[in-house]
Amino acid sequence: MGEKRESTGFLIKQRAFLKLYLLTSIEKERWYGMQLLDELRESFKPFGFEPQHSEVYRALHDLLEDGILSRRKIKEEGSKYKEVAVYSIANKEEAKAYKKLVKADLDRCEQLLRKALKDNFS
Amino acid sequence: MGEKRESTGFLIKQRAFLKLYLLTSIEKERWYGMQLLDELRESFKPFGFEPQHSEVYRALHDLLEDGILSRRKIKEEGSKYKEVAVYSIANKEEAKAYKKLVKADLDRCEQLLRKALKDNFS
How far is Cα A34 from Cα A101, in angstroms, rounded to an integer? Predict the structure, then answer.
């Protein structure tokens, strides 16, 4: 699913984390262009996490490559010529399966962090 | 403190996580050679995390470089010539300060993971 880097299984990769958020956003509403990207980044700020735009684009690209998302161009509202890209879920089953995988990893990571807090601070 | 890689502030780095565990182990008892390394790795296995030996050595090296740990060689028990390295805390204040930093980061990460579980699965 796009993650090529070798892993020792520490914590979830940023890429998978972002793909999860993209899928959930696009499930909820059609995605016009990139306007939600900044909202996404804003929402992580209080947690000290500021994903690079390039990393978010790569996550989006992965999902397109894997056939989970599709993209088409439409005329921008109120504009005669300007086009915007609209993203939607192309394969609902695969989107669901991927989210399930990521959920299992998030659960595992939460347990690993709790273990570290317990082992080192109690 | 040894972490040179640029960060977008996603989750805690493996290096910091391992340094935390090394400090706690060495606080509890003097560290003879590397026998505890494998115990450390074993304890993470149920969580799907198997740190490379090289990564653990680098964490140990960082703590020595930063003057938080010290190392000396002693004769191995029951052996006339064989030496083992013994690690101990060289700077208790700095060890404490570093652990405090890591705790804050673990807390932040736990919150970020919980947010992701809530935002995407509820």
Answer: 26
Q: Cα–Cα distance between A63 and A22 in angstroms, integer?
A: 9
Sheet strands (E) in chain A: 31-32, 69-75, 83-89
Contact between B90 and B120 under an 8 Å Cβ cutoff? The reply is no
Which residues on adjacent β-strands are paired with residue A71? A87
Interface of B with A in 59-98 (CB under 8 A): none
Tens-digit pLDDT profile for residues B11-31: 999 999 999 999 999 998 767
ipTM summary value: 0.88
Contact: A10, B111; criterion CB under 8 Å: no
Which residues make Cβ contacts (< 8 Å) with residue B14, sequence separation at least 6? A8, A10, A11, B51, B55
CB contact at 8 A, A59 and A18: yes
